[in-house]
Amino acid sequence: MKIAVLPGDGIGTEIVAQAVKVLEALDLSFEMETALVGGAAYDAHGHPLPEATLRLAQQADAVLFGAVGDWKYDTLDRPLRPEQAILGLRKHLGLFANFRPAICYEQLVGASSLKPELIAGLDILIIRELTGDIYFGQPRGRRVATDGLFAGAEEAFDTMRYTRPEIERIAHVAFQAARKRSQRVTSVDKANVLETFQFWKDVVSDIGKQYPDVALDHMYVDNAAMQLVREPKKFDVVVTGNMFGDILSDEAAMLTGSIGMLPSASLNATNQGLYEPSHGSAPDIAGKGIANPLATILSAAMMLRYSLKQEAAAQRIEAAVKRVLVQGLRTSDIFSPGTTRVGTAEMGAAVVRALA
Ligand code: IPM
Ligand code: MG
Q1: One domain, residues 278 and 326
Q2: Measured between alpha carbons, how far is 315 from 245 in angstroms, rounded to an integer?
Q3: Which tens digits make up the pLDDT trace of 95-119?
Q4: Residue 163: which domain range?
Q5: Nearest to 318 by CA among 347, 298, 304
């Protein structure tokens, strides 16, 4: 079992170190190799995704990823910005299926900005298509307009685009995931305005016919954003495109009050995967030893489940995380009066102890 460890920038190195500690405490044998990615790789090698890092990721069974990005890179040309590393990994590894669970932990109900009764027991799964849509549509960039009312003016554009096979494969992923849950899929689109998403809706409906046991409904993205804060527990599996999935998954994550708790998995057709916390590099708290490592530790559990086929070990980690929460240990982001505030490394060590 070969794991490429790519900590990245900001809090990435601190949180990934804790997940590695937890993996090492299992009695399994992994081959783990670390490489630079994002701004850290740009600083050292002049590119956010160096050849060697990409090769390491391609040859591994799974990638454990921290986070990339820092404001100091905002003025670089786009191809050199840290975010291009994660986009490049997704594209090169074909990681089209992104699983972003939003789960409300019983002990953290009070951390949400919504009323406890709205989110207690919340368990939804956002499935985001990750290698198509406006994120990867060509052409893009700046030019001078040659037609229309504003001919001669500068303009910038991005192209929203999906092919039938791209929509079909993510629809299959969603329906199959729903079969293991409560047999419901909500497909989110903007078919009332965008051709791309009328097509999305039609193709998802076609595939849905192969899953008569799964109930499918369609929702416009603006309404979905509203329903997520109005009555989030109405959702179960949500499937949507790259851009809407980016936005709705942040919204859903924050409903739980603890984005520092939420893992994610990005899989390709052969179950090779990249596993990363749902949150970003948080440069404002980097180096302070206060970041919450649990999302990354839970991402390592997803890695064991989906790519390495070690279900028992995945469950051990998840149970250990629940145990430290029951013990009352909290990093600052999830701290509340009456609980015990701990730092990043202490939290990692507590999970390792709880494994036993
Ligand atoms: C995410 C992030 C990325 C995205 C950025 C860092 C490129 O926001 O994984 O959700 O937009 O996909
Ligand atoms: Mg995002």
Answers
A1: yes
A2: 27
A3: 999 999 999 999 999 888 899 999 9
A4: 101-263
A5: 298
> Hey, whose CA ends up nearest to atom 2 of ligand 1?
246
CA-only gyration radius of the chain, Å: 20
Query: Does the active-site annotation cover 309?
Result: no
Taking 80 as the threshold, does the pLDDT of residue 13 lie above it? yes
SS3 116: helix
Residue 42 bears catalytic tag: no
This prediction has a pTM of 0.94
Helix, strand, coil percentages in the chain from 3-state DSSP, rounded to 5: 45, 20, 35
Indicate the residue among 263, 283, 310 that finishes a domain.
Answer: 263
**Does the active-site annotation cover 246?**
yes
203-227 pLDDT, tens digit per residue, is 999 999 999 999 999 999 999 999 9
Number of domains in the chain: 2
- Same domain for 226 and 272, yes or no, is no
Query: Does 197 lie in the same domain as 113?
Result: yes
List residues, by chain if needed, whose CB lies under 5 Å from ion ligand 2. Answer: 246
Contact between 272 and 306 (Cβ < 8 Å):
no
**DSSP secondary structure letter of residue 15:** H
